[in-house]
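JOB MANIFEST
job_type = single_chain_structure
chain_count = 1
residues = 231
[input]
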Amino acid sequence: MIDIRKAILVALKKELLLDLEDQLRAAALEASKAGAALPMNAKRRREAEGQIRFRLQEERYEEVVQQHGGHLLPDGVMWGTDLKVFQPFARFPGPDTAIILGFASMSEPRKIPPKNQSRAAGVTLNVSLQASLFDGGDCPKATDIFVLFLTARDRRQAGMIEEIAIGVIGADYKDFIFYASLDDFIQGYESKPALPGEPDGPDGGAKVKLRPTRKQFMPPEQQPDTEVGEA
């Protein structure tokens, strides 16, 4: 059986996930400010804010994945199938298993996002991860895995996100077959086996590797034109 965590770690770079986190948190804050300015009652403002937040986050997601080398699905067709999708899923090749990364919002942490046509098409790729669906246990080899970058808004603080996570939903769309908060997941990038004879630290203690400073993501259209010289 394939190691889902390892397959994702190999195909997706840490910088991609950190840039997605930065941009989606910023989009949630922008949506909150835009919703608060709408001249309508509180219930309608909350509903409008939710729509604005999702659309803003989806757009930022699309920009970031392409900036990091992701390829949007050609003609909106799920890889290896004839199923149509209507969300910007991006494919990241791996040495053995490719990752098709999508975005979804959760109503609360660990709550499976609502099923729609695009996500239903995506999870068909994950049938190979569930040997229990095959009577003989002889499931097909996984070539692509459908993975979601998930956000759950903070229900106590407007404009904040309570949790960001990496999730893989089973082909039957009943539950996660893999779920990890982003903070937990990125620890997998930190592990580096020590070389023989190499001390763990200056005093023989364990090394502490600080999380690198994040580089602020800038969409291509906002980047300076380096071909234009100064007058």
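[summary]
The chain has a mean pLDDT of 81.
The longest helix spans residues 42-67.
exit_status = 0
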